[in-house]
Amino acid sequence: MNGSKHDPLAYTTGIEAIWLLCTGAREAAFRNIKTIAECLADELINAAKGSSNSYAIKKKDELERVAKSNR
Fold this sequence. Notes:
With 71 residues, the protein is mainly α. It has three helices and no strands. α1 crosses α2 and α1 packs across α3 (55-69). It comes from Stegastes partitus (bicolor damselfish). Belongs to the universal ribosomal protein uS7 family. Residues 17-71 form the Small ribosomal subunit protein uS7 domain. This is Small ribosomal subunit protein uS7.
C-alpha cells in the first residue's frame, strides 16, 4: 500500500445515496398514515439537514463506521 488516506464519504456513491433515500421513504410509509410522497419529502429534508432521523444518514454513518473499523 502507498499509505494514502481514503475519504470515507467516497464509499457512498450517488446511486447508493438515492437508493438509501428511497428505501428510507418506503420503510417510513409502510403501515403509516403518511403517503410515500410525504415520507420521501421528510427523508430528503432530514438528509439535507444531516439529521440522524434520516434513514440514509444513519446507513451512511454505519457504513463509514464499519469501513473505519476494518482499516
